[in-house]
Amino acid sequence: MNKALEGIKILEIGDQLTQFTGKMFADMGAEVIKVEPPNGAESRNIGPYYHDEKDPNQSLYFWHYNTSKKSVILDLSKESDREKYMKLLPEFDVVLEDFNPSLLKEWGIDYESLSKIYPELIMCSITPFGQFGPWSDYKMCDLTQLALGGVMAVNGYDDVEGAPPIAPTGGQAAHMAAYFAAIGIIGAIFHRNIGGGKGQHVDIAVHDCVTVSTEMSIPYWEYQKAHVKRHTARHALPNKSSRWIFKCKDNRYILCLNTYLDEKRWRELVEWLASKGMEGELSDERYVDDHFRATRMDYVCDVLEEFCAVHESEYIFHYAQSINLPWAPLRAPEEMLDDPHLTEDRKAFVEVAHPELDQTFVYPGAPYTFNKTPWEISSRPPLLGEHNEEVEKKFLGSEALVEMNE
C-alpha cells in the first residue's frame, strides 16, 4: 500500500525547530532530505548518547526526531554550497527551515528570492517570533517560549504556600509549532495542487503557537477580565476547584474527575462506593443536584480520598471506566512500555534496526493509524552525510556528483 505522503519531497535545512515536522512527514512516506553543515546539525550534540559516548551519530535525542530521513552535507554559509543547494531545489516540493529571517535574505535563499525562480516552491519557516515584527530577530529556548506565551503562568501548585509557576518539560513549545507547521504545509500543498501550481511561504512563529494554546486563560481575561489561578494537577481557573488526585493503597496516585457528572454517572458512582460501605452521606438525594454538590465538594473529595486509600489503583481505574467515569492512574514511563493496550494492540512502540550497531531499539510508534496509507519508520535516523552520493546521483546527475565531491 502507498503511504499517505508518498511522492512529496522535502529539503529540511533546519534543525531543532523543524526536526519534528520533518519526522512526521518522513514517517508518513515523504522523502525528507536533511541538509546538515559539515559538523552535523546541533541536535546531534544533545545527549544522552548511546553507551554515554559522545558521537554525532549516537545522540538519542537526534535519533528520536530524525527517523526515516536522509542526510547530506552542505555548508550553506559558503556560496559554492549554496549554488549546489539551488540545483537541488527544482526537484523538491517543500523547503523546511528555522534560520534567522535576515540570514537567509543575506544569503539570497529566502522565500522572496527563491519564489521568483521557483514559483511552485513551498517554504515553511519555523522561527521563534516569525518573519516580521519587532521581535523577529529575538532568540528563544523552550522555557522562554512557555514563559512568554503564558503556559508557564498557569502551571503550578495551589497547596504549596508561595509556590512559583513551573514549566512543562519535553520541548512542548517546539512540538506545538511542529504540529501547526505540518498542518500549514499540507494546506499549502493542497492549494498548489488544485489552485494553479503556485507555492507559498508558510510563516510559523513558535510564540504565536504557544500563545493560542494556553487553554482558558486568554478567554477568561477577554470575556471576564479575570486572571486564572494555578491549581495542583488541575486546570487553571479564576476560582478554586476541587481536588482530583488521590493516593491509592498501592501508593500510586489516581486522577478522579468528580465534577460535571450527570445524574446517571453520579448514581453509579455512589452505588459503587456503597457496595464497599464507603458512600458516607453521598447517598443523600440532595447530592444528585450539581449545585448542591458544588457546595459540598470538599466532603465529596474526602469520601473519594478514603475510598482510594484502601483500593488498588488499577482496580479503581478499570471499574471507574466501566461505569463511564473518566478516571486514570498517574503512570511512570516504564508502565507505559509494559501496557499491552499500547504495546500489543495499538503498536504504540516499534522496533527500529540500526545495522551499523548490529542492534534493534524501541522507538515511539505512530500517533495515528491509517488503514489505507500505513505509517511506518522506514529507516533509523541517518548517519551524518550518509546519503550524499545517493542524493547527488538521484537529483543532480553524474556531472553534479563530481562537482559536489570536489
TrEMBL record:
Protein name: CaiB/BaiF CoA transferase family protein
Superkingdom of this protein's organism: Bacteria
Molecular function via GO: transferase activity
InterPro entries named among the record's database cross-references: CoA-transferase_III_domain, CoA-Trfase_fam_III, CoA-Trfase_III_dom3_sf, CoA-Trfase_III_dom_1_sf
Protein keywords: Transferase
SUPFAM superfamilies: CoA-transferase family III (CaiB/BaiF)
